[in-house]
Design goal:
By secondary structure, the chain is an alpha/beta fold. The chain has two domains: 5-155 and 316-439, FAD/NAD(P)-binding domain (3-Layer(bba) Sandwich), CATH 3.50.50.60; 164-311, Elongation Factor Tu (Ef-tu), domain 3 (Beta Barrel). It has helices spanning 13-24, 65-75, 79-86, 99-111, 141-151, 196-207, 230-234, 287-294, 319-322, 347-365, 378-385, 414-439, and strands at residues 5-9, 28-32, 56-59, 88-89, 94-97, 116-119, 131-133, 156-161, 164-166, 176-177, 189-194, 262-268, 275-278, 305-307, 310-315, 335-337. The strands form four sheets. It has a six-stranded antiparallel β-sheet with strand order 10-11-12-13-9-14.
Length: 440
């Protein structure tokens, strides 16, 4: 009997994880990697899973979203987590690696798999048949153009994304719900008012805050106008943002009975209302500066950030309109996407999406049902986030506890709450895997 075959484009974290999942299930894989024939501006060696930025995969402790996700990935048989642990270097509570040793080990493991053939050539178009596209933000121009045509738009652009905070961390003693001019539903927006003195303090901190470094391949002079960072807008005049993202027009603070001097609106980021986006606050400030400066807005004094604002070259598809939670195309079920192209943000997040794409491609080929981890897991929550059609302004997302449904009984202590969320999710995933093993 002829073996089923899958082509995977991209030899990064997502592509390698997907390849291993398929191989373990007896499915033949052709893994296409354009290096060493073609290098992106950020890549320099021919190994798979090359790290182009930090050598850290973030925290390992379960009380962190990154640690919880890696625990889930180990339960799902992650190649990247296994190789990272074997090439780890001291990094406190984080999982950091010797980047060259890590890439070499992953490459050796992939090349030793009997059912995986690594093909070193550039793919310029989307092949027919069973395909997983697992390219990152620096895919070659011809392939990016091909993907853009398939998905209905150009892929490579510079963007500034606004931070997202958890709903439960907003101080509602200093916030109120109201739509501007009472248009729409009252709970469409959370308003964070400032009086004149509070605004002056916030404004001074904002215009003097430090911006993040930009990668050499991200540097452009025309990146700001389409989606201007709030700190750049503020630098153009003392009241510019009071007539922009912090305009108080059409609002009345019920605690004072008056219009605020300035006001920041927060908009729901998901249907459940567990996450809120800082409307109009796209930013390129350092993460530490975002937390310091934005905490000067009284309602956000103790805000917990699901995602900080970022500004860089983004290459991703409009996944909520295009993908299912299995990472397959809605309009072409045998074409899957994985990695940063889907809008997951981070090394291990990309790897996790590759695991799920690989498992689901195999399940589709074998006629089994879809595999979507529980919504209480980070992997499951990310899969649901990138396929959530209710998200209108889709931006990349990494592992975050704010993606998870809240606990039935609220725990005030953050560490205890995060620990409870992690144990709940891992227990739910274990139950799901046990049911699957029994069925098999």
């Amino acid at each position: 009997m002829e073996r089923k075959k899958v082509k995977i484009i991209g030899g990064g974290f997502a592509g390698c994880e997907a390849a291993v999942q398929l191989s373990r299930r007896g499915i033949e894989v052709e893994l296409y990697e354009m290096k060493p024939k073609v290098y992106s501006p950020a890549h320099s060696n021919e190994n798979l899973c090359e790290l182009v930025c930090s050598n850290s995969f973030k925290a390992m402790r379960l009380e962190s979203a990154a640690g919880m996700m890696k625990a889930e990935m180990k339960m799902l048989g992650s190649l990247c987590v296994e190789c990272a642990e074997k090439t780890a270097v001291p990094a406190g509570g984080a999982l950091a690696v010797d980047r060259d040793a890590f890439s070499r080990l992953v490459t050796d493991r992939i090349e030793s798999e009997e059912l995986i053939t690594v093909i070193r050539e550039e793919v310029t178009g989307i092949p027919d048949g069973n395909v997983i596209i697992a390219v990152g933000p620096l895919a070659s121009a011809p392939l990016s153009e091909s993907i853009g045509k398939l998905c209905g738009g150009a892929l490579s652009f510079f963007d500034a994304a606004a931070p997202i905070v958890t709903a439960e961390s907003i101080d509602f003693d200093r916030a109120f719900m109201q739509s501007r001019y009472d248009r729409g539903e009252p709970d469409d927006y959370i308003n964070c008012p400032l009086n004149k003195e509070e605004y002056e303090i916030f404004y001074d901190a904002l215009i003097n805050a430090q911006s993040a470094e930009t990668h050499e391949f991200d540097k452009r002079k025309d990146v700001y106008e389409g989606c201007m960072p709030v700190e750049v807008m503020a630098s153009r005049g003392h009241d510019t943002i009071r007539f922009g993202p912090m305009k108080p027009a059409g609002l009345v603070d019920p605690k004072t009975g008056h219009r605020p001097w300035a006001n920041l609106q927060l908009r729901k980021e998901n249907n459940e209302g567990t996450m809120y986006n800082l409307v109009g606050f796209q930013t390129n400030l350092k993460f530490s500066e975002q937390k310091r400066v934005f905490s000067l807005i009284p309602a956000l004094a103790n805000a917990e950030y699901v995602r900080y604002g970022v500004m860089h070259r983004n290459t991703f598809i409009d996944s909520p309109r295009l993908l299912t939670p299995c990472f397959s195309m809605r309009q072409r079920s045998n074409l899957f996407f994985a990695g940063q192209i889907t809008g997951v943000e981070g090394y291990m997040e990309s790897a996790a999406s590759g695991i799920l794409a690989g498992i689901n491609m195999a399940d589709m080929l074998e006629g089994r049902g879809e595999f979507i981890p529980p919504e209480t897991t980070i992997c499951g929550a990310l899969a649901r986030y990138v396929s959530d059609e209710s998200i209108k302004n889709f931006q990349p997302m990494g592992a975050a506890f704010g993606l998870l449904p809240p606990l039935e009984n609220r725990i005030r202590d953050k560490k205890e709450r995060y620990s409870a969320l992690a144990h709940r999710g891992l227990e739910d995933l274990e139950k799901m895997l046990n049911i699957q093993r029994t069925a098999d």
